[in-house]
Amino acid sequence: MQIYWTKINKIIEETPEVKTYLLDCPEGVTWEEGAHIHLALEGFNAGDKPNRSLIRHMSISTLPHENSIGITTRIREQCSLFKSILRNLGVGDEVAIFKIHSNVPLKREDKNVYLLSSGVGLATFRPLVLDYFDRADNVNQIHSLNIDSSRDYLFKSIFESAPDKKFTSQFVDNRKDYYEEVKKLAADKDGLFYIVGSDEFLMQNIEVLREQGIQPEQIMLDKRESQRSEFLSYELTM
């Protein structure tokens, strides 16, 4: 496993609680949309075993042609050791990155694509939408549905409905309305449904989709295949 130490080249305050850290891209490092990466802080490998409290699995919110590895994350006032250290880092400070992999690349199967997310989960979907805008081949249309009670919506210039590009973006601020909208979207029995959020959020979405007749192979999760199988083993209780 190769570990790259790289510098923070820019920090963007997306909202009062959400920041994007743009990292220099080491030579030869590339990825595809929907990728995640392991981000580690100084001292994570100082002992005999890696200090897992200084390592996080993070989505990459940029595409390679943007020439930076973007990490978008929510940092609340009360937060973990990892995020409290990250919050205090500045431009020029170093972090380590390793193990890039994509579980949710954009499928181009001539179907409608639905992106279901909660809050900062939009960071995972930003590259998929940009990739679609660059090349819409074999994707009928994309609809993004995000639940965010803060109303400080992320990436407003991207997640804005663009009928000419066959892209629609929808935000709701409570779970009741959100799941009603999911049910409506599930009327498309041939659609592809991508879900990003907490494990609880994933399970609730899967349950609603399965109850509406959506099949496991139509549901994309940012999980390794073994984990994905566990989530999708949900059986309908009739």
From TrEMBL:
<dbReference type="InterPro" id="IPR017938">
    <property type="entry name" value="Riboflavin_synthase-like_b-brl"/>
</dbReference>
<protein>
    <submittedName>
        <fullName>Dihydropteridine reductase</fullName>
    </submittedName>
</protein>
<dbReference type="InterPro" id="IPR017927">
    <property type="entry name" value="FAD-bd_FR_type"/>
</dbReference>
<feature type="domain" description="FAD-binding FR-type">
    <location>
        <begin position="1"/>
        <end position="107"/>
    </location>
</feature>
<dbReference type="InterPro" id="IPR039261">
    <property type="entry name" value="FNR_nucleotide-bd"/>
</dbReference>
